[in-house]
Design goal:
The complex is a heterodimer of chains A (225) and B (254). Helices cover 84% and strands 0% of the residues of chain A. In chain B, 72% of the residues lie in helices and 0% in strands. Classes of the chains: A mainly alpha (225), B mainly alpha (254). Chains A and B meet through helix 6, helix 7 and helix 9 of A and helix 5 and helix 6 of B.
Chain lengths: 225, 254
């Protein structure tokens, strides 16, 4: 008797969120990292007003990517170290449900960090980042990172190098997401006419779908034991 | 422990340990001769480009080398898919050979491009979308090799490498199409449709100079087909010998 697909996904997500609500391990470390990162960027780049407006979306996305990598490593290493991965593999559920469950959890945590960053950067960089289009691009971008990251992190936590390998294998493959997201955000923040940049969110949607399908098809090969 | 079992399970007899197969020797000679003919067509037969002068001749190697990398890395995708389906080691060997030959040809493409860009763009390197995406493509496949080295269990290594080899091909496709979707690149598009306006620096008309089309027609199959296939064959043989030696070592130890 198999547990229905959505029920399995939901219970994995619920488990992840419950652990997080009790330990606050992931979001706090990701959030602190993100905060430090934007502070360091503002010192390192010595930004004047115009340079800041051009660099701000790059700073936002680099911070989101690295914070996601931090969270992904923890989130999947946790499954492996505490033997929960084996339990999930033994459970009578669709194996792809594990992927979608972990993906949803990782997406939620990355989004929380991203949403925290927007008001903080609005204050620190003195530019309004809370715009509906930017929220949409943030959702699409973090979705892309979470998709590819969940698959690759599941691979790298099983290797010898572990934490150090994920950024190396993930950054190049996540580049299309990063490229489209940065381009779209720069244009949104510059308040350019929508016709100039609407192609970037569209590309982002296409890339997200391609990655989702690819990861869906490849995931079962990553966890067979 | 699994490594030991896996290695001893490898066939020790199947690998040919004698001399090079006759077909490979023939292919090697054909490839060498074809490369020389290609060089002759590019350096002597084609007329000099009126705008760029002799430096334009680098194009006859530059673009075919990228197509060669594309073919080799496409071999990685085929090897990866087939490995995941059949679990035969030979497909993983094909994938590995594809990555290494692909990196080599992509580097040929990058270096020839830089030599050409120095007089034409007045810089060795610029953070143009296509240059950036190809640099990232090479780094992706460097990450593939690092990933392989990070995994001890051979079965797991082959499985993960197959998955990553399939995903990494996305960067190859991006490099291929980026000059067509990003109009702000300065990289010229010589063949096929393009959205470029006057941003691209250093394009030329294939039909404008005599001998250009012929030089391209010769060099394209040489670099896109003969060179990658010959190199990959050697790399596959090397890997087979390597596995054979590993298996013999395990046998001697046990």
């Amino acid at each position: 008797m198999k547990t229905p697909f959505f029920k399995a996904v939901l219970s994995i997500v619920r488990k992840d969120i419950q652990i997080e609500l009790r330990s606050r391990e992931l979001v706090s470390s990701m959030g602190l990292f993100a905060l430090l990162s934007i502070l360091i960027f503002s010192f390192a780049l010595e930004l004047d007003r115009t340079a800041r407006q051009e660099a701000i979306s790059g700073v936002l996305w680099v911070t989101v990517v690295f914070a996601s990598i931090l969270g992904l490593n923890r989130s999947l290493a946790m499954e492996r170290d505490q033997g929960n991965l084996d339990a999930m593999l033994l459970a009578p559920i669709d194996r792809v449900a594990i992927f979608f469950g972990k993906l949803a959890g990782n997406l939620v945590f990355a989004l929380v960090v991203g949403l925290l960053l927007l008001p903080i950067m609005t204050i620190l960089y003195n530019q309004n980042l809370i715009r509906p289009w930017l929220l949409l691009v943030l959702l699409l971008g973090t979705f892309g990172f979470a998709t590819i990251g969940t698959l690759l992190a599941m691979m790298t936590v099983q290797t010898r190098a572990r934490e150090s390998l994920l950024p190396i294998v993930m950054m190049p493959v996540a580049l299309p997401v990063l490229l489209a997201a940065v381009r779209a955000s720069t244009n949104i923040l510059a308040q350019n006419p929508i016709a100039d940049w609407i192609a970037w969110p569209q590309i982002l949607v296409v890339v997200d779908i391609v990655y989702l399908v690819a990861c869906y098809l490849l995931f079962e090969y990553v966890i067979e034991e | 422990m699994t490594a030991v079992q896996d290695a001893s399970a490898l066939p020790t007899q199947q690998v040919e340990t004698g001399g090079r197969p006759r077909l490979l020797s023939a292919l090697t000679i054909i490839t060498l001769v074809a490369v020389l003919i290609g060089l002759y067509m590019a350096l002597f037969n084609a007329r000099t480009d009126i705008d760029q002068g002799d430096v334009q001749r680098i194009f006859y190697i530059h673009m075919p080398a990228f197509i060669g990398a594309f073919v080799a890395l496409g071999g990685t995708v085929i090897g990866g898919i087939q490995y995941l389906r059949t679990r035969q080691v030979k497909w993983d060997t094909l994938a590995l050979a594809g990555v290494e030959v692909g990196i080599a040809l992509a580097l040929v493409n990058l270096v020839t491009g830089m030599v050409w860009a120095r007089p034409i763009w007045n810089t060795w390197w610029t953070w143009d979308p296509r240059l950036t995406s190809e640099a990232i493509m090479v780094l992706t496949y460097a990450a593939y090799i690092m990933l392989r080295q990070g995994i001890e269990n051979p079965e797991q290594r082959r499985r993960f490498a197959a998955v990553y080899g399939i995903l990494a091909f996305i960067t190859v496709i991006i490099t291929l199409v980026i000059t067509r979707i990003r109009p702000d690149t300065i990289h010229p598009v010589v063949i096929g449709p393009s959205v470029q306006t006057d941003m691209a620096q250093g394009a030329f008309e294939v039909a404008a100079t005599s001998g250009v089309r012929a030089a391209l027609m010769v060099n394209m199959p040489v670099w896109a087909v003969l060179v990658p296939i010959t190199l990959m064959w050697y790399r596959i043989r090397l890997e087979n010998f390597n596995q054979h030696i590993q298996a013999l070592k395990m046998k001697a130890l046990s």
